[in-house]
Amino acid sequence: MFSWMAWTTPVAVFFVCIALMLVGMTWWEIKSPTTLRKGWLPMATTRGDRLFMGLLLAAYINLTWVGLGEKMVQWFALAEEPSVWISFGLSMLALAIVMKKG
Question: Could you give the CA distance from residue 59 to residue 95 in angstroms, rounded to a whole number?
């Protein structure tokens, strides 16, 4: 069923984090319904909107990191491609910023 995906540890951790965020956001919405608010994003958003946009941003960060891995080896004279754990940390930080300030 899941053979189409390259299930490495970072990929599994990423998807587990997304699942936990969805469960947490559902619980938070039941306990405290959201209202529209305007942050630094160009529109008023709810928590769910910010989560969706943050997850898209996290996905793009990770895809860019993986796509530029070989180039980063050349650019920075690295012995091997940088770890995807770095992009995971960056993407979770970006998601947190969008959730807080967006």
Answer: 10
Helix (H, G, I), strand (E, B) or coil at 78: coil
> Model confidence over 74-97: pLDDT tens digits?
998 889 988 888 998 999 899 999
Place of tokens 């960056």: 90
Q: Any idea which residue has 């769910």 for tokens?
A: 48
Task: Answer for the pair 25, 51: CB distance below 8 angstroms, yes or no.
Answer: yes
Do the Cβ atoms of 52 and 98 come closer than 8 Å? no
Distance CA 7, CA 11 (A): 6
Q: Report the predicted TM-score, pTM, of the whole model to 2 decimal places.
A: 0.77
* Adjacent-strand bridge partners of 37: 45
